[in-house]
Amino acid sequence: MLYGISNELFISNVQSLVDNESEANTKATSSFGWTRYHNLAEIESWLDDILATYPDVTEGFVVGKSYEGRNIRGIKISYKADNPGVFIESNIHSCEWITSATATWFINELLSSTDDLIRDLAENHDWYIVPVLNVDGFVYTHEKDRLWRKTRQPSSYSSCVGVDPNRNYDVHWMENGGASDDPCEWNYAGPHPFSEPEVKAMSEYLGSIKNKVNVFLAFHSYSQLLLAPYGHTADETPDNFKDMMKVAKAYADAVDALPYGTVYKYGSAAGALYRASGGANDWAYQEGIKISFTVEFRDEGRFGFLLPPAFIIPNAEEALSGIIALLDECKKLGYLHLN
Ligand code: 0X9
Ligand code: ZN
Ligand code: ZN
Questions:
Q1: What's the CATH fold of domain 23-332?
Q2: Closest Cα to atom 16 of ligand 1
Q3: Which pLDDT tens digit goes with each residue over 270-316?
Q4: CA separation for the pair 325, 330 (Å, rounded)
Q5: Which residues are known to be catalytic?
Q6: Residue range 250-267, pLDDT digits in tens
Q7: Closest atom of ligand 1 to CA, residue 220
């Protein structure tokens, strides 16, 4: 999204959106589903249920601990040996609730759908999914400030709290004005690369399995974009950028074929959005994962981060169709080989 500007342009009364959202949340029953947004405790107990229901094909993992000491949890889904791997990082920006709602719906589909295409998708890839990476920020968005984006680690020299974790990876860190060195800014890169325990833990976890991962997707909102490397400059593109654009087009076309009329655009992060250094998908690419995207979900700014819960399932269906098409194209282009 276009930080600040589009918020003001499209959302004239953010508080009323926040109020509507929490009203929808209190009316709902306690059971898990995708008609409202859930807090971290609900997501974790749902994850426990899933792991208990599908013990033969799932495995819980812990990426590491957050600054405030919470576990960052993930799920691996594997139906057989020697599958290509797909890693999904979600909710690194804590206000982007649609990302974890989509990730949990997606996990549920992989495990419970009887549709042939989805069974193929589930059973012929190994899935590593982290529904909520920025756990401290996520709790903060539920309890204190709905639009909080950053981590919750205090600064040693400012009263402003938190770092933009998607500027904190050790990849062209702080280059070309792709992040801020001001702790009070929304895109503060942190005092040094990997200063945030969540980001450091993610890099170590992903680093430890990177040889098994062929595709990396970072779920974000909003703007309806697929963003390839790089974020720090538009003057340079990865050597397989053309392939990545084919893969992105396949995703966008698949979304376009659904009846919702949602349009996805694609390009490099710096080219199609803005300069943003130190991002997760650039880091994953640098580590050798050749298909590596930021996916910016709905919408285009009308609701922004406050996407009403009625859009969770449509958005998730778009992600599912998009990912099926994306992996299909990856396979055609030879990216789903074992390393
Ligand atoms: O600014 C970001 O981190 C992402 N947009 S968001 O509105 N969700 O904050 C875009 C990240 C683009 N990817 C890279 N810079 N690698
Ligand atoms: Zn550099
Ligand atoms: Zn984001």
A1: Aminopeptidase (3.40.630)
A2: 279
A3: 999 999 999 999 999 999 999 999 999 999 999 999 999 999 999 99
A4: 9
A5: 296
A6: 999 999 999 999 999 999
A7: 8
